[in-house]
Amino acid sequence: MRNKIAFLSLCGVPWVPPVSLLRPGKASTLPSLQFRTTEPPKPCHPERSVAESKDLRLPFALMRPSRAGWIGRTALAFSLVTALTVSAQTADQAWLRNPDRLFLFGKVVALGTSPIEQSAAQELSRSVSHPASVKGGISSTFEEREKSLTVVGTAGEIRKAYPAVPVPGDLKPDEYWLWWNGSQASSLTIVAGGDERGALYGVFAIRRLPATAEMGKFKADYPYRDHPALPIRWVDEWDNPDGSIERGYAGRSIFFEGGKVREDLAPVAAYARLLASVGINGCNVNNVNAAPLLLAPESLQGLARVANTMRPWGVRLTLSVDIASPQKIGGLSTFDPLDPAVKAWWTAKVDEIYTLIPDFAGFTVKADSEGQPGPASYGRTPADAANLLAAALEPHGGVVLYRAFVYNHHADWRDPRADRARAAYDIFHPLDGKFASNVIVQTKEGPIDFQAQEPVSPLFAGLTHTSQAMEIEVTQEYTGQQRHLVYLAPMWKWVLDFDLRAGGQSTPVKQIIAGTSFHQPLGGMVAVAGVGRDAWLGSPLALANLYAFGRLAWDPNLSPEEIAAEWTRQTVGTDPQVVRTVVNMLMQSWPAYVNYTGPLGMQTLTDITGSHYGPNIESSENNGWGQWHRAARDGVGMDRTVATGTGYAGQYPQQVARLYETAATTPDNLLLFFHHVPYSYRLHSGQTVIQYIYDSHYQGAAQAAALVDEWASLQGRIDPRLFADVKARLQYQAGHAIVWRDAIVQYFLKLSGIPDEQGRAGHYPGRLEAEDARLTGYTVIDVMPWEDASAGKAVTCDRTNCSAEWTYTGAPGRFNIAVQYFDLQGGTAKFTLAINGQPAATWAADATLPSTRPNGDNSTRYTVRAVELKPGDLLRVEGAPGGTDPAALDYIEVTPAVASSIQQ
Ligand code: GCW
């Protein structure tokens, strides 16, 4: 059923609520408001009353799902997850399913006619019109509902229509104010915005408020007022015109296909609604490795359609531009930022953009970085390039986000002073004060590149006369690519709260990027989102990261736990045990990932020059990319001290620089980022570095396994499809965490020569290597990198069928048998595990994992549980290659069957 909204022009009937009603005093919690019934005002002459759906005429009541309501909720969640498992995307999948708890506010009217106010009113009507919501137990009569009214408008519109309502005179853009008066039977609710976008955010706050606390514990301030901490809250999409997405893990672009903007922009509208619901006000739709042709007139027409689609949700379009565009598409012989013809070209191009997209937000620029052209070609600075664009945008109110991700990717790794971490500060700090006022320098949170753990970029404290934005990654490029559950809000929060002590004063990053520490006009937070057509982020729980980004950009003081709980209540379920469990899982996930992929500030020990996914420890070394960790026989870590290293530590303000300058004062979790120490070096925790490497990897893998158990405890409490979907993902993750654990542990065991005090490294009880099996057809290969396979070797099949067979020699009993194989791209191999010739399990290697060679990207574990074995039994794995997947096999592992999934 379609809901129709009534747009009423109200004339300000002098309805003055009794003074006592304006200040509800103690009764300030919304559910328990007990007001004397007062007739709310009626509009004096409704105009353009399009239509009024009875669905909108709902009472002022907190909907509490009855017991019967649970069935409704389950059914709702069921349909939610049906959608999650198909390759499409709807806002419901993320967190905007119809709420099962809602403050209802009777008839909804928007005072203005702008698309944003229409969206706001529609949003409320959409929330209350769903059958699952209506089940909540509406008790009031139709007459009572008739008397309640919710009015959405800007502060100015509200003041004009309701002079007696005490709308504050100082609401800022994007700010909202919620006020209500009356009783359950009859009420007036006001959603006022400092501007239209503020009104929209007020509506989304109403929608979200019940999710901010457990049922019955909700307390609302009255009147409720909130504004964003940061003016710029953008997502960057790295979508290419051909529809592919750089570092995207959720299918193809919702914006582009075949070099053009897609015809079907319905997903873009749904995405804009999602973004608006958490206060995001800008969306950059194309890759920072920008395709210049997007600025061609026909492309701009398409982009204008995108802007039109996002506009009703207050999300402004922004674009990444190639600084060489005047030459590449403009026919000029140069793109020198100081050349008058170049300036004229940009001015004309920007004017053309604004004729099509009047609220265009601005440009993002990646220049002189990773092969992108830049001002350095002409001996010009980033400030020259940024100011060139800023001058063209300024008359229209547009801004430039100039990325500080500028570094030499041909650095000399033999030079102990060379250090990529220094680059942003070295290049941008000297330019402080030289940027135009509509330029914002956009800096990644850490000095390297979205690693699982890095220190905070010192550049935030190095630009005191420049507006700044912090860039983070929602798309999990180095943090498990959405195949691993890694809730990143705790990491972002750590960065936001980090006090850089600029000038010896309190200057946490969150205040610097808000523009308050150094009194800058602008500031913000930008997340590389990477949404695609596969359920937005390809994995249901990964959406908590997108949600958390929006919430933190709005209010960096929120805690990651609170945000996780809000998201869970809106998405997975409101049952307190569900909320507790999911929040715990989310909160443990990042520390677990750090534990098994690269602890102590070593960065993510992944394939740096390739997939950025599986383990590949040496790929960071001996090349110009500069993500070095300097693991060697004598020790590990990169000396970045002023005294003996690259001097990077000295880029921080004094107090922080002092902290990082000596190993003794550097926190353990960043030790190896700043110092090269022997493996026997003792951490503050008392452990040696090498023992910490062993312990943390075993701990991390156990934490990943525990996630499976925690999730398993939710069976029957949440939607069964969501349950099954996430369980399979977590089981995969637990298996891949073992791949990570074993790769890093065996690598450092070999390099250091120091055994694991606990005797685990290099000893794998129950493990039977494929290369030691009786092989039929399979041939033994060296896996590259060697640490990605157990003992460095595996077997592959170049026939139609091969097998590896072992004779079981252990004690009789029940066992789990894990088969570790490589699931390569380019085909679907099949495997069978047979016991004494009888198939125990058959499965297909049909995942989509990186790489066409067997390695840690695609090493995968399949566990057959509770198998009875006795000495002499024959264990046999049969592999049948498919396409270019050669059914490669690493080992099997026979471990006693226990209830826990630790044996994944
Ligand atoms: O982390 C690296 C990514 C690149 C990306 C670059 C950047 C868009 O691997 O894919 O390029 O960062 O942020 O510019």
Fold blueprint:
Layout: E1 6-7, H1 19-22, E2 61-62, H2 67-84, H3 91-94, E3 103-104, E4 107-110, H4 115-129, H5 131-134, H6 142-146, E5 149-154, H7 155-161, E6 176-182, E7 187-193, H8 196-208, E8 224-226, E9 232-236, E10 256-257, E11 260-261, H9 266-277, E12 282-284, H10 297-310, E13 316-321, H11 325-328, H12 340-356, E14 362-365, H13 382-393, E15 399-403, H14 423-428, E16 439-444, H15 459-462, E17 467-473, H16 489-497, H17 509-513, E18 523-528, H18 543-554, H19 560-571, H20 576-597, H21 654-661, H22 671-674, H23 689-712, H24 720-752, E19 767-769, E20 774-776, E21 778-782, E22 793-797, E23 802-807, E24 813-822, E25 829-835, E26 838-845, E27 859-869, E28 874-880, E29 889-896
Parallel strand pairs: 1-4, 4-5, 5-7, 9-12, 9-18, 12-13, 13-14, 14-15, 15-16, 16-17, 17-18
Antiparallel strand pairs: 2-3, 6-7, 6-8, 10-11, 19-29, 20-23, 21-22, 23-28, 24-27, 24-29, 25-26, 25-28
Helix pairs in contact: 4-8, 12-13, 18-19, 19-20, 20-23, 23-24
The structure holds 4-O-methyl-beta-D-glucopyranuronic acid (GCW).
Overview of this structure, please?
The protein is an alpha/beta fold and 904 residues long. It is built from 24 helices and 29 strands. It is 30% helix and 17% strand. β12, α10 (297-310) and β13 form a beta-alpha-beta unit. Residues 1-86 and 130-144 have low confidence and may be disordered. It binds 4-O-methyl-beta-D-glucopyranuronic acid (GCW). Residues 238, 246-247, 287-289, 366, 370, 405, 449-450, 477 line the site of 4-O-methyl-beta-D-glucopyranuronic acid. The site of 4-O-methyl-beta-D-glucopyranuronic acid (GCW) has 12 residues, from loops.
